[in-house]
Design a protein that fits this description.
alpha/beta, Rossmann fold, Alpha-Beta Plaits, seven-stranded parallel sheet, 21 strands, binds adenosine-5'-diphosphate, binds magnesium ion
Length: about 550
Amino acid sequence: MTTFKELGLHPDVMKGLDDLGFVEPSPIQEQAIPFLLKSKKDLTALAQTGTGKTAAFALPILNQIKADGKELQAFIICPTRELCLQISQDIKKFAKYCKGVTVTAVYGGERIEFQIKSLRSGANIVVGTPGRVHDLIRRKILKLQNIKWLVLDEADEMLDMGFKDDLDAILSETPETRQTMLFSATMSKSVHAIARQYMKDAEEISIGTKNVGAENVSHEHYIVQGRDRFEALKRILDNLPGVYGILFCRTRNETQEVADKLKQANYDAEAMHGDISQGMRTKIMDRFKRKQIRLLVATDVAARGIDVNDLTHVINYNFPDQNESYTHRSGRTGRAQKSGVSIIIATPRETRRIREIENIIGKKIEYKKVPNGEDICRKQIDNFLEEVKNTKIKDTISEEYFSEISEKLKSIKKDELVKYILASKFGHLFGDKKNKYNLNADAQSFREKRIGGVSGGDTVNLKFSIGKRHGLDVKGVFGLINSKKSLLGIEVGKINIAPEYTIVSVEERRAGDVLKHLNGTNFRGKKLNITITNESAGFSRGGGERNKGYKGKKEGFRKKRY
Ligand code: ADP
Ligand code: MG
């Protein structure tokens, strides 16, 4: 076992680590610390979320910093307030025995006056977020001209959040002589871009699949239709008694909406995203850490600062925008030697992304069926019985009182009594129609059904029960679709008009809408019946076209509104 001492750290720094209970350096620390202690070269360091990157850059800085003056020597920039606070607090803990070292955090959402005061009194290390830092530079409060170390923590995220201009402006204030370090969980395009622009001849350290965090995470996926996503989520949650985790959504709106719906359905969930005030976020995080909230519904960005080690699950309500972000998400569980599960709720057309992510993580993402009512009942009751069996009965009810209770229940046999208890506790799960509907979508049959035609996306062939003989032509097909406002913008691919019927290829994600809105409508006195079919739409109309509907421009055949 390598020790922090062997990496070359000063006893004062190690004392701080002792207090924190850090015994053994993590792999990224083992490689980055000795490098940063002896080399002045730039460094790109890649290691998964939760692998101790903060200490990997902070400890060598603390080891070399001169604490005898007020001069700013190290500047760390990171994407969010949460992360900024986290990093500055971590560094303060590491520096507990490093006499005189001062650390200041500057971030938006808090009064700038305090931060100005703190900077004026002198800070050797500043941790900041791009917007606030840029502001403080413009006010000539923060001066970066003499820094020795520049750390870009999760720099790719800063670019993704649109801080490119701030970053450019901030970095142009730093000296050429600085040593730049970039820490990230993934080698994404933006990381490459940053490395190219801001770093020279950087050493690269990458802790790949050896990562301890990742080994403890198993991966699962469910396949459901998009419209069943929320229902599937509820069942998955019902089937995970004791779940403590993060549910990832794509946008702030979706995050809020899903959290609201979960709360309405009595789940211990709370939203966490950029539109929520700082004060509120701190409260939510507090309750989450104390497990009063079991499920945090969050955007990727908001989840960055969350530092909780014993999450049982990470759930991807939707895929992240980029496959690489999946590792950030799943790395939130399976930390600190505990095991965790990362779940993806996917639609049939997203199965390709499952395979792409499998390639990135080098692990199988196991297929699971969405549980039905009976599965959930069993799971919950089993869990309850386990809890009951493990409950300590000592000192609960006095013998005297218990004989009273016994007397009251005398007429009921033990088995009957168990049934009563279960019914009173789990009755809500027994309902007749409760969770009966099979939510699992079949990825395989979907693939068989689809054919080419629509630009890029997956399509489904629909069989209309009317054809040439009834007077239907291509115009008529568009006319039918255009007659319903809710079908606006649907991509229509190949159309084959036979005498008795018509096959129309439409984009898969809207096929359900076509069925819903057109089935049963009238075409020249005949009732239209539509079904999904495997029959091909035959003759090609080329690369497919978008139904411009009521708002379409009228230019030529392709774009014409019929
Ligand atoms: P990252 O930046 O890679 O996502 P952090 O630096 O935030 O990870 O560290 C994740 C957690 O692991 C923190 O709670 C930190 O205190 C803890 N940690 C870091 N290094 C060690 C270590 N060597 N031993 C024990 N715990 C550690
Ligand atoms: Mg970090």
